[in-house]
Write a structure and sequence with these properties.
about 300 residues; Lipocalin; 10-stranded antiparallel sheet; 20 strands; about 35% strand
Length: about 300
């Protein structure tokens, strides 16, 4: 069972009545003890203060070596509490629902749409003020989950962390949302699957249904993958979080289905050359320009082995 390090207002009422009296007798302590060839040293006797208050460990002073910090950590939603008080396992649509706290700014994915806002963190309280979100439409069950998620954020008054699990509470201490800390894969050695890309017309769009686009960055400056119809390759360089991807080459197969797959392939390969910065948030790789415009967004599919596609 995990023990949560809870950060919320706690009222303590402690009444302690201690008393001790030492009455000297006619027999000394040494005389009252059984004879022993090697006398043991007597412990020092200290009379406790009558009104002394015990020093209880405060949550902020408890060891935190194995506790993930609330801030600057990406948290993935695993369950939420519905209006009936039931704990519901989260459903994943395009990417995992998540939240991140950093320098007073909160952001994440609410299930279908990305959201942003602000938060206030004090010693014993956490409050969240959602600001806005994107407006993408999703299937009804995912939109319903998103509404519960966003509504719960407005009710948050406190939080608790146990190891790599975060729980957000309401004012009565009821669990609203439960998250697990995201463990990010490395850029190299991971098979990345495209979920959205810049189509060259100032819009980031999802990949076509029934199409798959992948990318693998090896440790020798080579990018390779499947672009939806053809295999492709390109060179790349990385310095810290900066990335530069060179012009790509691809095989010359033509695909008629799904409709628009060839245009998608061309737009994706052109978008890669626009990338200036890469960011990994949990299992999501984001390529963007220097001014923050999204170039492409991938989810980690698996540790990269041989990418098997027909050319």
């Amino acid at each position: 069972m995990q023990t949560f390090k809870v950060h919320r207002p706690i009222q303590l009422a402690i009444a302690i009545a201690l008393g001790a009296a030492i009455v000297p007798g006619s027999v000394t302590l040494a005389q009252a003890r059984p004879p022993s060839p090697t006398p043991m040293p007597l412990p020092s006797l200290i009379a406790p203060e009558v009104n002394a208050q015990p020093q209880l460990p405060h949550s902020e002073t408890m060891p935190t070596d194995h506790v993930a910090p609330l801030e600057n950590t990406l948290w993935y939603l695993t369950s939420y509490t519905n209006d009936a008080g039931d704990t519901i396992a989260v459903q994943t649509f395009d990417q995992d629902a998540s939240i991140r706290f950093s320098d007073g700014q909160v952001s994440g994915n609410a299930t279908c749409n990305r959201f942003f806002g602000t938060y206030s963190l004090e010693v014993d309280a956490l409050t969240i003020q959602p600001g806005g979100s994107t407006l993408m439409a999703c299937p009804e069950e995912f939109m319903a989950q998103e509404q519960v998620f966003m509504g719960a954020l407005e009710q948050v008054e406190g939080y608790g962390i146990a190891a790599d699990t975060l729980q957000l509470y309401d004012a009565e201490g009821n669990v609203l949302l439960t998250f697990d800390r995201a463990v990010s894969p490395a850029l190299t050695g991971t098979l990345w699957q495209l979920i959205a890309y810049n189509n060259g017309r100032e819009a980031v769009v999802s990949t076509l249904t029934d199409s798959t686009i992948t990318a693998t960055f090896d440790g020798n400056g080579r990018l390779s993958g499947f672009a939806g119809c053809n295999n492709y390759g390109a060179s790349y360089t990385v310095t810290a979080d900066a990335i530069n991807i060179g012009p790509g080459m691809r095989t010359r197969k033509f695909c008629a289905q799904p409709d628009g797959v060839m245009a998608q392939e061309t737009a994706y390969l052109q978008a890669l050359e626009m990338a200036d910065v890469f960011t990994i948030e949990g299992s999501t790789l984001i390529l963007s320009t220097d001014d923050g415009a999204t170039v492409a967004r991938f989810n980690a599919a698996e540790a990269a082995g041989e990418t098997s596609t027909d050319s």
